[in-house]
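Suppose you are handed a protein chain with no further information: no name, no annotation, nothing but its sequence. What can you learn? This example shows the usual starting point.
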Amino acid sequence: MYNRMLVPLDGSELAEVVFPYAQELAARLDLDLIFLHVYSSEESEFAPMRRVYVERACEIVRRESEEVREKTGVQPGGKALEARGELAVGRPAEEILRYADENDIDLILIATHGRSGIRRWAMGSVADKVLRASKVPVWLVRAGIPEEIVYDKWPSRTILVPLDGSELAESVLPHVEALAKQRDAELVDVVLLRVCEPPVISSDYPPTMPLSWEEHVEQEMDKFRRVSEQYLAGVEKRLKDAGLRVRSEVLDGNPAGEIVDYANRNPFNLIVMATHGGSGLSRWAFGSVADKVLRVISSPIFLVRVC
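A reasonable first move is to predict its three-dimensional structure. Written in structure tokens, the prediction is:
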């Protein structure tokens, strides 16, 4: 599913939080790595220094990836790891997206913070623009990520997959399967999560109805929970049949709030989400659920944009 991964860097240590992820993914998924550094035309005199920086990053991650292969005995495809550095001049987000489009990139790995901690690449800037427009999945890693969820620290991995019942939201499932199988799938726990959102109180609910509004809501929520449990059971079976270790959770409340609370109570190595859902009406698009989760969650997020 993945052959080439683009890793944008801005020259800061904060942006280099992606290195452990890059080396693990390259080693286990047999990915070619391209490190891209974008600078403005006004900074052209420093191009040689920037070339040295990006090539050094390549060498560090290539060496660490080879060590991952040696430790795990992983030799996917039997070919040597390939990594190279590239420079581009222009606006960072535009150049990252252009490079991805023109060079058959399958995955972008990017940090949410950048240069000197000033959030140059924070949400609302470069990373945000890339997330909004990328045609390929984006793996987003927040600088300052808690040690307990860093990708290469635990012997096992936990992936949280919020779903809203739509086929669009389910478009992440092939990615979940591929990512889980990069390690022994038996060491990866996949948690499917669906949130039942209570109906908004109706101003014209007839007072003559046999049930009060509260009783009506509870009755509807019971139905929603049963439907959600049946739905997740079906998805769970499909993933189990593919060899994954899976369990499901159904919660009540506001989708974004419940996803964030659940993830904060149960640290996850990765959250996999689609940017669209809700029958294609962008219910989980930016400005809604996915956006709210992206802005406050500390776990890395793998985002698949569905048009």
